[in-house]
């Protein structure tokens, strides 16, 4: 692996955030496998994978996506996998993502492929990897981690020309792992202004870096033919998973919450109506019982 020593440069984040990434935002374009160091510490890993990823490619091409806005003719789409924490306005309980129910085979392949590449994280970022393992082990139950890794969740992006942003929601100080598949498209490079670089992120490549601390964006994706695509599969560890109880207890907890919510939804007038109906049923039942007794005398 080639080593490249760089320094972070000061940038005005406000000039980049939420705008389209451009190749002109960087002076160095990287195509070869590389580990980038800053102050003798590894900060980014990029490699063309030699592992067989055919099953993973099949899986990401055969799942259901949530569609977003069109960008230059390409509809942005995404799908989450792994585990999801409590989201009060949607589901106030920890759960496995819907992909596991709707596309179980694909979900299994996508989630567990991380076992094939986590070795690179461990080898090239040994201290960060150990920190990642320890913080997740300390905070998150094994019920909510993917395989034997510290990752809890992930997302598959299809043709997403992501504007400059910082990732959010992950544990601090740990790294995300991203695999990219590309066919029939050009562009879609990963641009990082603070390092003054743009990564090719070619087909069948792996990139590891801290997307929470490093501003990054995806350059324009050009669809060169009708069947073109750019998929990115990103593995990460969601900080809110620390709130998740053991699976069995989580199920019982949400059952209790749902019952309480259903009771709270009933206003006073509705409760009085229900109580009146209950009394009517009891009176009717008593009457039926008396008539039955009279008949059998």
Description:
- By secondary structure, the chain is of the alpha+beta class.
- Helix content is 31%, strand content 27%.
- It contains seven helices and 16 strands.
- The strands form three sheets. Strands 1, 3, 4, 5, 6, 7, 8, 9, 13 and 16 form a ten-stranded mixed beta sheet that branches. A four-stranded mixed beta sheet has the order 2-12-11-14, with no helix packed on it.
- Strand 5 and strand 6 form a beta hairpin.
- The N and C termini lie far apart (97 Å).
- About 2% of the residues have low confidence.
Which terms summarize this structure?
four-stranded mixed β-sheet; 297 residues; 7 helices; 27% strand; 31% helix; 16 strands; elongated; alpha+beta
- Rg on CA atoms, Å: 26 Å
For the biggest sheet, the summary is:
10 strands, mixed
Distance between the termini: 97 Å
- Which spans have pLDDT < 50 for at least 5 consecutive residues? 70-74
- Our count of helices gives 7
- Category from helices, strands and their pairing: alpha+beta
List how many beta strands DSSP finds.
16
**DSSP strand (E) fraction?**
25-35%
- The helix/strand series, from N terminus to C terminus, equals EEEEHEEEHHHHEEEEEEEEEHH
Task: Kindly summarize this structure in a few lines.
By secondary structure, this protein is an alpha+beta fold. The chain contains seven helices and 16 strands.
